[in-house]
Amino acid sequence: MGERSVVAEGLRAYWLIAGMWVRAGMTYRASFVATMVGNLVMTGMDFVGILLMFSQVDSLGGWSLPEVALLYGLSVTSFGIADLVLGSMDVLGARMRDGSFDTLLVRPAPVLAQVGADRFAVRRLGRVVQGTVVLGWALASVDVDWSVPKVLLVPVMVLSGAAIFSAVFVAGAAFQIFAQDAAEVQNAFTYGGTTLLQYPPSVFGKDLVRGATFVLPLAFVNWVPAAYLLGRPYPIGLPSWAAFVSPLVAVGCCALAGLAWRTGLRSYRSTGS
């Protein structure tokens, strides 16, 4: 019961803080709309780059444009959800430097909820919308022999991918506590991770694919389940049932990230400012 009450308290605190930032952002409606549209356009430039590539080639690593678009849509949509919910975690280092992180520790609300909801920005929905549009087009265009398991696998991929990226955000924030900032390191695994997953695993070396599968299991966001969906062999020979373990991988990643976060908080020493 105690654990449930902590979770409920955290969700309530997150909702209240995020709502405050949403109301503040909506004060100037024209500025909000312009910022959201700008964010939508900027995030779409990555896919424009892929389209330009396919204007010169018929396939990329043996994958067609709709197949690469499927990887892109899954990666961007999953990451966009995590970025919307926890994208402010990368400001933790700045808070520790200026001493404002200490004020979060004495407030009657879970620190993770406060950091995650800090500067909540609805404009980040632009990334989710753009990724969803590409994903929808890809699903309508790919040559897949659809079955019930494959249909159900699509939303499972998106939700599990969002949870995996969320765990990376939290683990990165915990690392910032130990390193006293290093937001760039966190961004290398979050923003860098989603960029990596936008391209087929066949274009990368097997050592990198193994690392993204067994060390930092970002491959379970889209590479592994999408290979099953498209009837393609995975480069390092995983069994077909591995496509369905993304939820378990997500749970494991979240548990490890939570442990890292609690360890980081216990080790934190105030800046004294």
TrEMBL record:
Keywords: Membrane, Transmembrane, Transmembrane helix. The chain crosses the membrane at residues 30-57, 69-87, 128-146, 152-175, 208-229, 241-261. It holds the Pfam family ABC2_membrane_6. InterPro entries: ABC-2_transporter-like (IPR010390). It comes from the Bacteria. This is ABC-2 type transport system permease protein. It comes from Streptomyces griseoloalbus.
